[in-house]
Amino acid sequence: MADDKMEKAAMDKMVQETEMEEPGLFEQLVQPCMAELVGTAFFVLMGCLCVIESAQEGHTLQAALVHGLALAVVIGCMVEISGSHFNPSFTIAVFLSGGLELKMVLPYLISQVSGGLLGAVMAKGMTSSEKYAQAQGAAFTVLQADDHIMKALFAEAAMTCLATLAVLLSAVNGKSKNHMFPFLVGCTVMVNVLAGANVSGACLNPVRALGPAVLTNYWTHHWIYWVGPITGGLIAAALVRLFLGDNDTRVVMK
């Protein structure tokens, strides 16, 4: 009888400890979404400020460094809270690769869009009206000729595919996970901006394009910055699921 009581007490203690260790609604939903909103807002803020303040000089190197380093910083700060997506293309690809639950996809997307708008608003509040107007609020204006559209679309898809592969292989895929994930993703963004800024603007992120577009009402060829990055993310997810992922991630030839 004494043994039964001790065993029951031990089981009750284990149940209580398990319940205490399980994260609540705040840590499961609210905190990750706030991290996505705040991280996206500061990433877009830094990117927009850079473009607005250097619009006349057209410093591609400066834009590459600011976007890449800002992303590395916010990823490093928020990765243990939300996974540090800050990009709808990344979120969709991570979900398709098994790194995110379906119930979190829509909240993440809403948080990222909200963060992109907030970042653009903050950038407008920090810059002069003259410089803001000259840079169209950091909206992507590189696409003017219609015969350049398909090349820019291809560029956005290819460059986002590379950036998404960096995310999936260094943060989601078990075999290739790397503690230098923030640095790798940040460097990938830098390389893409340096290589493709004059082709498409090297946006790679729909919400980075959305915030400035909303505030300046500049929508010329804006759809490219949604279709291109999301397509690139889908291709990256397919590559990981079919060929590059480990046995837990890959869905064929296990």
TrEMBL record:
Keyword hit for NADP: no
Protein source organism: Danio rerio (Zebrafish)
InterPro entries associated with the record: Aquaporin-like, Aquaporin_8, Aquaporin_transptr, MIP, MIP_CS
Chain ranges passing through the membrane: 29-52, 64-85, 153-172, 223-244
A cellular component annotation (GO) from this entry: plasma membrane
Chief localization: membrane
Protein name according to UniProt: Aquaporin-8b
Family assignment from sequence similarity: Belongs to the MIP/aquaporin (TC 1.A.8) family.
Keyword Transport applies: yes
Protein origin, superkingdom: Eukaryota
Topological relation to the membrane, as annotated: Multi-pass membrane protein
Source lineage: Eukaryota, Metazoa, Chordata, Craniata, Vertebrata
